[in-house]
Design goal:
The protein is of the alpha/beta class. Among the domains are: 206-332, no CATH class; 335-435, no CATH class; 447-502, no CATH class. The protein has helices spanning 259-262, 281-286, 311-315, 334-354, 359-365, 378-382, 391-411, 421-424, 433-445, 460-463, 466-475, 486-495; strands spanning 2-5, 8-11, 30-32, 54-56, 78-80, 102-104, 126-128, 150-152, 174-176, 197-199, 221-223, 245-247, 255-257, 275-277, 294-297, 303-306, 329-331, 448-449, 456-458, 480-482, 501-502. The strands form four sheets. It has a 14-stranded mixed beta sheet with strand order 1-2-3-4-5-6-7-8-9-10-11-12-15-14, with no helix packed on it. It has a three-stranded parallel beta sheet with strand order 13-16-17.
Amino acid sequence: MASEKSKIVAFKGIRSGSEVELKIAKSATILWLNDNSLSSIDLDDISEFNNIERIYLENNFLYNVDLSPLKNSSSLKWINISNNELQKIDLQPLASCKSLAILELASNKLDDLDLSPLSECMGLSTLVLSDNNLRDIDLSPLRRCTNLQHIHLSGNNLEGVDLEPLRGCKGLQNLFLDRNQIGYLNLSHIESANLIQLNLSRNKIAEIDLSPLKSGGYLAVIDLSHNNIKKLDLSPLSDNSHIWKLSLIGNPLPYLDLSPVAQSWSGSSWSRSKVVIQPHDATYYQNEDERGNILLQVEANTILVIDPFLKEILTSNERYGFSQVMDRISWILGPDLAEKIYNDDGWQGVKKRLEMLPKNIALSALSMTELAGLEKPLEDVTNAIEENMSFSEGLYTAYMKAVELLEKQLERNDSTHELDVARMKETVAARLIPKILELRKQELNRIELKRDSEGYISLEELKGTYYGRLILDKLGIGWRMKSEDLEVLKSTFRELGLEIKGS
């Protein structure tokens, strides 16, 4: 039975063996043949549908579909032949369908597919080939399809996929390669993509480098569950504040270092979320209170470790961040974690990780938390370490280089913020302490507190000094204060041997 509404032609209740008359409504833009019992279809009459934009043939029993009649369908944007019995299909006629944006061939029995004709479909945004029998797929024809946003290759028999042809697909948002036989995947070719979801679950991946995802600021879902991953470096995700699901369940991970993501997941003022450790998505998503949080899925025997350097930051927030999962956290010193990496991958592996970490965490891993105020790039420190050095030799060399760079920083009268003088007393950096204290007093001498137009004392300049910020934060004073409270503040500074000017 056919029905026509506006420019949509829909057929329902067609049994196998029935003939479908397509000569009606030549002005139709949508042909709907989903959910019938068709085992064959002749699209010859489609050539007379001058404005056809969408063809839906999903959920039938089609063994073969000849697409030749579509070769002049310049308006065709979407064709869906998913959930049929296709063992092969020739896409050549689609080469002339310049407007094609979506091609869906999921849930068929395809074991081979030539994508070459799609090289002419440069507006292609979605390609769905999930749940077939594909053992190999050549994506090189997609090199020109730079508008691709969604690629679904889930549920095939792929042992590997070369993503190099997708290098130019900067708008790629969703890449689904789950439920295959992939043992290795190079993500470097999609480092420029704006990925939102990456699903590699249920493969045979033993090791994966997430470094290419460092620039993926909008990456929200990473699913690596049910693989054979024994170690994973999360440092490439250190700047990502949009993650809401990281699934690693079903992997033999002995431990997972969360230090790289601890700050971005800590429930800061711009990210009022908390970390939830839960094995099942269904329970998580059914709970309205949990939505918008970060779902971390790991095995119960995977030890979650964080550098104790971050403990104060993480424990200060009683509602957000890691507050609900503190019982799962093991506090392990940054240098101990770095040494584990050194034992596996040498200094090259350690440097690669450190260069992607926030500087304060990286310096902690190098046993120099007291030098967190060093302004030079971390590479200037780590470049001094030679690959053949032992771990202890490398740490010593890095520290000496950092002290050298810090001394030059102080000679330029640059910032002394985040330099821990108390800790420095026990190190070779102790000789820099007099200069640091001198500069901190000079900072105070250069400023004079003034009233603003409303009669309040502006404390912005004072907050910019080391002692000023330290004392004001301890007293809980913000960016301005009443003029009558200024003398109390001055006396507080005097008790510490410091002077501030202003009236």
